[in-house]
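Exercise 7. Predict the joint structure of the components listed below.
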Amino acid sequence: MGNIRTGAQILWESLVREGVTTVFGYPGGAILPAYDAMLEYPIRHVLVRHEQGATHMADGFARASGEVGVAVATSGPGATNMVTGIATAMLDSSPVVCITGQVGSKLIGSDAFQETDVTGVTLPITKHNYLVSKCSDLASTIHEAFYVARSGRPGPVLVDITKDAQQSSCEFVWDDTPVQLPGYRPELRASEAEYQRAMELINSAKRPVIFAGHGVMLSGAMDLVREFAERANIPIAMTLLGIGSFPALHPLNLGMMGMHGEAWVNQAIQEADLLLAFGMRFDDRVTGNVKTYAPNARKIHIDIDPAEFNKNVLVDVTLAGDLSNVLRDLLPTLERGDRAEWLSAISEMKGDSAVRDVQNLPDSGHLYAAHVINDIWRMTDGKAVVVTDVGQHQMWEAQYYRHQDPRSLITSGGLGTMGFALPAAIGAKLSRPDAEVWVIVGDGGFQMTMCELATIAQEKIKINVAIINNGYLGMVRQWQEFFYERRYAATPLLSPDFAKLAEAFGLRSASVSKRDEVEPTIEMARSESGAVVIDFKVDQEDTVYPMVPAGADLDAMIRRPSLSPIVETADD
Amino acid sequence: MRHTFVVLVEDKPGVLNRVASLFRRRAFNIESLTVGHTEIDRVSRMTIVVDTDVNGARRLEANLYKLVNVLRVTDLTNKASVVRDLTLIRVAATNETRTQVMQLVDTFRSRVVDVAPDTLIIEATGTENKIDGLLGVLEPYGVLEIVRTGRVAMSRGQQHPLDSPDPENEEMSTEPDDNVSYSV
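Solution:
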């Protein structure tokens, strides 16, 4: 019994043994014993300004590196503030461990000060959660929590620790052997018959399309996907979270699919005879109307989570398992193919798309978001880690920043959480200090979590923030334009002077409203050693094209008018 | 159609909540849910009845397996199994009607477990159909109160849920079993 520690010490001892070096958190009464003990351990603690930021930072940390991100908060409001961040991580399968303090175990159920049933609140939005009320359960629970968070389909795990469990002492026992959970099956394996059916469909397909989802990166299957696509000459379409899993400039890369996917991508899907879904889940933003979705295509669904099979779209073959393992099993029987006819048919579908591109409009003095994003892409050589928020700028980023590398786009896809970008970028930068990190965020989303500018200043975090400021909640405004007769209810948005605001936090800033100022300002931001906030004042009523209205057929797209009414004169 | 699942879970705090929450979260309606201890230490057994189609049942099974504390899920719907519901019925019974009521109870192979001057409590075990039948014939006498456990089920023969195919090794079967039998 020589190894006696307090629960608080055991918490940090266990986190350090799980490889944790950085945590994002905010102290408070019920977690104070843990904070006191933290000073004895080699942990960098980032003090956030709101606990939502802590979970987004842990999430960004996890997405940029593949390592588990850790967020810490106190009981009650501290923990409930984490809820949005936890749900964000859940929907996007991000491995995050949240540690929350809880009131003393004798007070549970008494409505004590800052008491909330946090395991109850987070039950449907965590992969699993724990309430620890005994010191002796702490080490094994932390070990288990990390295992559950990162294995199988990753996700957030919350560990709620009572104050008395942190304060009391017990022997510290660390069991380093792999966790054995009797009911937990992180990976299944499909039958040989399913593999055979899959290979028959693949080898005989004339017009196949591969879908690359987030699972490609989570599984680390980028090279295998590439080998698969190149050998059989199958073009690849990406989901929003799949961007980066296959190089954007590779000739087989079609681009993003779905609601704001390029026209030819959606058209190719509708004409395909086989869809190969790699680690994606046929989200409604991807499929449009499921009744008319890919009507000619057989569908093969590969996913680590069998609960995704036949959920939104009925498929012909399901292959459960880690994508890398499944592809390794499929590759030996994959036949070479040229599929020249199909690839040239897709090229023809591209048609006049290029001339519709806002990039190719003459400079009328107006600044469009596309120009800003395209310039950031060009000047960073496509090598930056870009963290986006939710809305129009998110879709423009997906269209105009050509991501070559995995984990180089970090964005809230499933939950669509405004306010995600700024804190997530802080986490991304801390997990990959050598990466150039850019935040691309709207004026609406930025104001949801802009308090984290103080975190950036205090922690001296070098990131660049490009605010795409159009004075509207732009994506909502766009829906109002198309579907609500331009009745702009609650979308015009008055914002502070973002440049002055950044200065108030002690950060360098700039304000840009002309196309020729974009490049030098990006250059300035890149050469500056501290964080830079740039307020790009862009065209107010620009629209994301193409657009498949929610629930419409995938090929029923609203296209950018080619004789565009948005080509204005400089003085209108 | 109605699906009957037997779910073995770790006996830990909050597990019932996790399972019930999953059904609500995925918009499945639970018709009945029973839970109790098993012959295995720290393992509880739930019998859950849900109205859903074959694909829904398969997804439900996959979702149940995602809960860390769920050990085994067996869909007994198309398997030969013994299915029972336990019911207590308080029925009005005066001196004039008591004998008639007790004869009906005998016919349904049920028992009277409490006698009061104006009422009887009847304990009935059987399939839901049988109990519905008993309730039907008692109705004219005045059914004052009922409590039903909901369905409990066990597969026939020697197969224990833990011996049934594990999804790790075998595809989940949705094929119907031909020797379905429901005896009273």
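Discussion. The radius of gyration of chain B is 19 Å.
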